[in-house]
Each structure stands twice: as structure tokens, then as C-alpha cells.
Amino acid sequence: MMGKYVVRRLLMMIPTFLGATLLIYFLAYAMPGDPTAGRCGDRQCPPSYVAWFRAHYGLDKPFLEQYWMYIQNLFRGDLGVNYYQNTVVHELAIRYPTTIKLAVIAVLCEIIIGMAAGILAGISKGKFIDSLVTVSTLVVIAIPVFVLGSLAQMVFGIKLKWFAVTAGDGTWRQLLLPGLVLGSLYIAYVARLTRTNLIENLRADYVRTAKAKGMSTTRAFGVHALRNSLVPSITYIGASFGGMMGGAIVTERIFNINGIGGLIWRSINQRDGTTLVGAVVVLVLIYMFMTLIVDIIYSWLDPRISHE
Length: 308
Description:
By secondary structure, the protein is mainly alpha-helical. 73% of the residues lie in helices and 1% in strands. The N and C termini lie close together (7 Å).
């Protein structure tokens, strides 16, 4: 049953992937600006060079023809060559490991800190710990990431010297503080989501029935209330992984991290559509596979969910 579901989901990914790549390619194609600007110094590039550049990168062809050529190359594993004669695969291979490590740290912070805070607040409804979690998560949500990152860098990196100020090498230790900053907003949302669902499930009829039949409070909490409360949180965490990798531009710039966020930002500024499309296409693939993994975890958390 599960195998058929996975195969069906993989087949459904094909039209989703094609639609996403078409939209991404169109947005890159419609991006304003001249990709040859600044390539000849302060002077405008000669018309002969502009004509060669557009012909070399296929920019003189109609949009659909460009897209069809890109898709053909994509299914052969070729993401193209950027405007600096570097393969996009090479550019991504340099930066993706760092961004993946950064996103993994942020997700682990979501799971450990966010869920733990939500569970503590849920079982302590109306008490001090509940108020502390509610207020602190509101504060984190209200503070912009660039402010939070700069404060964390100043306090924990410069004043206390607990963490490295920058993460240029991209080691796990250097990425601890940036990962916590990147995941801070998601941690707050996971904590609030877990708290809300846990409170609702603790007063649900099926939990009271389980206790009335002699089930211990601990078992009723762990087997019924907690597992059902984690389903929405798992959904959010799975979806946030792809968002973290694509939305790490601010965090990577604050901590001087050579990752995918910085590559996307540079590609937009330089009108490098080939690199931009390649980076985002890989993000789309990661996002789709993360949603598949989340759906598979559902059946373990809640056996009532059917994958038929």
C-alpha cells in the first residue's frame, strides 16, 4: 500500500515539477535589466558583443524555445553554464552543502526547542511557563530576522564569545548561531502550533474516554494526545525546510556564509537567469521530496490517515 502511494506521488511530482520550472523560467526570462550591463567596464558593450552574447546563451530565441532547450538539458542532468563560463552544477556543489547544514541545524532547533516549548506550554496551560512561551514567541515573531541576527552576532559572538562571529568556512560549529537565527521564526511558530493542538487534544473526548477505561495519564498523553498534536507541527517543519534553504539570504549575508541564498541574490543582481533558475529548480525538488517524507511520517504518527 505504501509503495503504491509513493509511486503515485512520484508520478504526480512530474507535472508539478514541470509547472514550477515553467513559472521559474518565465520569471527569470521576464526579469528586467540587461545581462551584458557592466561586462565591458563603464562603457556600453559594442553591438557585436551583445549580439554574440545573446546568441551564445540562446537569449535571442523565443521564450518557449529557450524553455524547451532548458528542459531537455535538465533531464540530462545539465543545469547549464552561467554568464561567467562556470557550470551551474559546480556553483551549486560548492554552496549547497553549507546551506543544507545551515537548514538542518535550523530544523533540529525547530524540533528540539520549538516542540519542547510547545509541549511544556500545553501541559502547563495558564501557568508561568505557558505565559513565558507565549510572550517569548510573540517577541521573536515581532523582531525582523536581520535585527535578531545582528543582535545575536553582537551578544553571543562579540560580547560573550560563545560562537564565531562569521561562518565563512561553513563548519558545523560556525553554523550553530546562524542556524538558530534562521530557525528562530519557525521555532516560535512550531511552539505555538504544538501548544494549541496539544491543549485541544488534551480536552478531547477520546482522551477522556481512554482515561475512563483505565489508561494511565502518561500513556493517554503520549499515545493519543501528543502523537495527534504533532501532525500539524510535522507538516510545518517539513514545509519549512525548503523555505529555510531559499530564504537564508539575510542570514547568510549577516554571517558571511557562502551559501545558496547569497548565490540567488547575486544571480538576481547580475541578471544571471541560468544560475537563478538552476538554484531554484533544485530547491523545488528538495521541497517536493520533503513533503513526500512528511506524508509518509503521517502514517506512523496517526494510523487513521490512509494512503490508499
